[in-house]
Specification:
Layout (H helix, E strand, L loop, with lengths): L16 H32 L4 E12 L2 E10 L5 E8 L5 E9 L5 E9 L8 E7 L1
Antiparallel strand pairs: 1-2, 2-5, 3-4, 3-6
Length: 133
């Protein structure tokens, strides 16, 4: 004797609800994955390639109670114009000075010592960022 099968004949009644839900989730996941990858690529490009000016604080020293001397190394495209923002904080962590310094030379690498004026003795010098114009 033969045994009766408990499964439905394949292909006769279409896809099950679980298969349709799985396909929908796969499509939604793929779309969201591609969108996240595109967003990540945009921010990576903006952060790395679109920035025409970058800098690094090499050294700093408190020149007096009202000034901090900061040695900056600026790297940029030779034709780029822009500025870098520096700030200094006091012993207690409050901001005692902030200023923008322009870099318009036709060089791709600039070493420059700038003087940041402060309202009281500055104990730090921090580069907040550089922006091309």
């Amino acid at each position: 004797m033969s045994t009766a099968s408990t499964q439905l004949p394949e292909g006769r009644y279409g896809r099950s609800a679980d298969e349709r839900a799985d396909r929908k989730l796969k499509v939604i996941g793929s779309v969201l994955g591609v969108a996240l990858l595109a967003l990540f690529g945009y921010f990576a490009y903006y952060y790395v390639a679109a920035s025409k000016i970058s800098a690094e604080v090499i050294a700093f020293k408190a020149a007096s109670d009202s000034a901090v001397e900061v040695h900056l190394e600026v790297r940029k495209d030779a034709d780029a114009r822009g500025y870098c923002t520096l700030r200094s904080q006091g012993e207690d962590g409050t901001e005692v000075g902030r200023a923008d310094f322009r870099f318009e030379q036709d060089s791709s690498r600039i070493d420059k010592v700038v003087t940041l004026r402060t309202t009281s003795r500055g104990t730090t010098a921090e580069l907040l960022g550089c922006h091309a114009e």
